[in-house]
Structures are given as C-alpha cells and as structure tokens.
Amino acid sequence: MAEHPTGIPIQLEPLVTRVLANNPSPYTSSGTQTHIVGDRDLAIIDPGPDDDAHTEALLRAVGGRPVRAIVITHHHRDHSPGSRPLAAATGAPIVGAVAEHVASDSLRLDAAFDADYAPDEVLRDGDSVSGDGWTLAAVATPGHTSNHLAFALPETKALFSGDHVMGWATSVISPPDGDMEHYMKSLEKLLGRDDRVYYPGHGEAVDNPQRLVRGMLGHRKQREGQILRLLRERPMALGLLTTRMYAGIDPRLIPAAERSVLAHLYDLRGRALVHEERDVWQMTGQAA
After folding, report:
1. Any residues with CB less than 8 A from the CB of 285 and at least 6 apart, and which?
2. Average predicted confidence (pLDDT) for the chain
3. Which helix (H) or strand (E) holds 156?
C-alpha cells in the first residue's frame, strides 16, 4: 500500500475523502481507512478503533459540517468502536450492520468483535441513507462476518467494500461468525455488479474490481482444491493441514490462516466431501 500519513484527509474523488487510522498490524495493513462521503453534509463510513487522535482527525476533516450518519460495515473492533465518540461529538446516528454477539472459543485476532456495538438503525440489503448529492445503499455481503455490509455510492458508481474485498490481502473467514459458503456467494454477487471502483477498509482503492473479485473466487477455489488433494493423501489435523498449505507464511498470520482453512473445511463438510473424527479431518469414506 502506498504510504501516507495517518490522520491526514486524502481526497479520492469529489465526494470521497479518506482518513487513515493509526492501527497498523499484520491483519489491518497500514490501518483502518475511514471514508467521509459528501460535501455540504456528510456520512462517515467505519470510524475505526476508539482512538482519540483518529476521532480528532475525523472531526477536523468534518470541519463543522453536519454529519447525517455514521455508517458501519461490520462489528470488528478495528471498524466500529470509533462510532461512539464520534456520535457523541456530532450528534449523528450510528447506522448499518446489525449487532451480532457470537460466542466463540477462537483465538482473538486483531479483528475481534466490538461487543459494545449498538446501532441506532439497522440497514438491510437495499436500504439507504442519503444527503445533499449522495446516497449510500447497503449491499449485504456476509462471509467475513455474518452481518457484513458493503455500501454503494450510485452517484459515482463507487463501492465501499469494508473487509469483504480489500486492496492488500484476502479476508480472514473465521467461524462461527465467518462463513466460507456465504463469503463465496457474496463475491459472486459483487461480480454481477458494475461498480467502477472499490474503496476498501484496508489497502488502496481497487480500480478494476471485477477482475479482482474473479481472482479472489479463483484463489478460494484453489485453496479448496489444495485441501482436498492433501486429505486424499491422508487424514490430517487442522494445524498440520494449515502448515502444509501455508509454508513460509509470516508466523503471526498462522492463526488467521488456520481459521480460514477451518471455514473451508466446514463448507466442504456441509457438501458431504469431508468429515472430522477426533479432531482429524478426512475425505468422506476415507479410513482414518
């Protein structure tokens, strides 16, 4: 990703300004990108972590203009906690993804749940918020999380893709809230659209989004095929399967890779291609 300072508004097009939060990590790239939509009045998409410096940077970028809505793509703590101090400062409602509280024993990655997220208004697929010269229409894209929404800006054919499609890496799909079958269907849904550009929550803008989405679908199908080939060799536990598939990966990313492999396995199990016995995965019909 091209380097630029945190907290500095970058105008991407007349209706869209980006402000980068200072929360870089192996899971967030250079940090969470908050997008400000509008000119005379505004929407703020994914205000990021609860960080005083980032909230102050957003308020400077707002410059006293009315904020019609604080819009949330999903409830991970690198995206939604900043909505609360921003709402207190601007009086704007928090709208977007439904609040989901999922019990999980999985490792807490950087993209952990924001347990305090509570929107003033839930938006469903096709619902919208609008202001002077702009509209944000919700596009349901579950998979990365069960409640994930993208937001289309029809005035310029832009799509704010959150973490469903990012400009630097593929999304982590972490069960039970993440679901590989839903993620793939959401990618296919986006492939059927004609958006001009994606503005993701992490990474640079995507100027040829349909090509990227086709590549992401192909990448996930390749991973699925890799799992099936390895399990045809012999049954394997999740950890061994992951290390075989992701040889040479940054060790800090192994937990995330393991969650995505597990999501693939759950999808394959749902299609009766694999099953699990005593924490060992194997092809259906294969002897342990």
Report:
1. none
2. 93
3. none
CB atoms within 10 A of CB 224: 18
Residue 213 CA: distances (Å) to CA of 153, 175, 216, 260:
19, 22, 5, 18
Q: Would you place residue 1 in the very low, low, confident or very high pLDDT band (cuts 50, 70, 90)?
A: very low
Instruction: For the chain, give every domain's residue range.
Output: 10-207, 218-283
Per-residue CA distances from 209 to 35, 122, 159, 272 (Å): 18, 27, 9, 33
List the single range of 165-174, 210-219, 258-267 with lowest mean pLDDT.
165-174
pTM: 0.93
What is the number of alpha carbons within 13 Å of residue 36 lying toward its C-beta? 26
The string of pLDDT tens digits covering residues 113-160 is 899 999 999 999 999 999 999 999 999 999 999 999 999 999 999 999
CATH class in words for 218-283: mainly alpha
| CB-CB contact of 141 with 186 (8 Å) | yes
Express each pLDDT in 5-16 by its tens digit: 899 999 999 999
Fold classification of 10-207 (topology level):
Metallo-beta-lactamase; Chain A (3.60.15)
Whether the ω angle into residue 176 lies within 30 degrees of 0, i.e. cis, is yes
Summarize the chain as % helix, strand, coil (round to 5).
Answer: 30, 25, 45
What string of DSSP letters covers 231-279?
HHH--EEHHHHHHHHTTT--GGGHHHHHHHHHHHHHHHHHTTSEEEETT
Look up residue 156 and give its amino acid.
T
**Rounded to whole angstroms, what are the CA distances from 207 to 135, 159, 165?**
21, 11, 12
Residue 198: phi and psi, rounded to 5, are -110, 140
Residue 121 tokens read as 């208004």
